[in-house]
Amino acid sequence: MTGALDLTVGIVGAGSMGGAIARGLVASGTLEAARVLVADFDAEKRAALSALGMRAFDGAEALLAEGPDVVVLAVKPQVLPGVMEQAAPHVRGRLAISIAAGVPLSALEDAMPGARVVRVMPNLPVQVRSGATALTAGSLATPEDVELARGLFSALGSVAVMREDQLDVAGAVVGTAPAFFSLFVDELTRAAVLRGLPAADARPMVEATMRGCAEQLLNEGVHPREYMERVTSPGGTTAAALRELEPALAEGTFAAVDAALARTRELAGDR
User: Fold this and answer.
1) 252 touches 266 (CB < 8 A)
2) How does pLDDT run across 68-78, given as a tens digit for each residue?
3) Partner of 153 at 20 to 30 A CA spacing, among 59, 125, 197, 233?
């Protein structure tokens, strides 16, 4: 998708995700700032987005009354029912995109009859336009709706279209992955400090290494296993370290993803 789109997008919720989506759509040139409408009760968040040329509202009702072509529901799952009740009369026949984890298409469509619903699961790196978003379409969404939603979120990173059961798995993996990566950086830093490095030196070194590895993997398209082999000499220190780390890391990662997926299903069942 190239050039600014001739439509308006209303984003209900300007928190970490909603604000990142709004900024990314404008920064990428996907939408002109004046075509992005945002609603949030927090005056500071509204002011920050208004300063970028977006139109900010203190509530969903005021935003929805403007009749945006696309409505993005970027609020927490526990807040979503009330927002959907407000949105229902306004999104009939329109594209409504939800980012709420654990709220299935069936619940969204029941709460907003006639809306062309799409679910997306973005992750936090959308804030720097390098996120990963999974996308699945509801029963009334058209192929054009899917392509439009894909185009909007492509401004924030990579997008994959999939079935709803796969979207929940993607959410359990890429949605939690930023926390996993952050935890690993923190644990490596703590290990370095425990063995005698000053924290002020250790953390920047670990963070720089993580950044460099990510850039090389992306730029060269090399498989992670092949990349590991580059730094693993037979009988060397890295080989010894991996022998200890890999079994525990694999077991912990699989268990963590299963726990996240189980919680997603609990959230869906609670509705």
Assistant:
1) no
2) 999 999 999 88
3) 59
To the question of pTM greater than 0.70 for the whole model, the response is yes
Assigned superfamily of 9-170:
NAD(P)-binding Rossmann-like Domain (3.40.50.720)
Alpha carbon distance 190, 184 (integer Å):
10
Strands across the sheet with 9-12, in order? 55-57, 36-39, 9-12, 70-73, 95-98, 116-121, 131-137, 157-161
Percent helix, percent strand, percent coil in the chain, to nearest 5: 55, 15, 30
DSSP character string of 8-20: -EEEE--SHHHHH
Instruction: Specify the CATH architecture of the domain 177-269.
Output: Orthogonal Bundle (1.10)
pLDDT digits (tens, 9 = 90+) for 66-122: 999 999 999 998 899 999 999 999 999 999 999 998 899 999 999 999 999 999 999
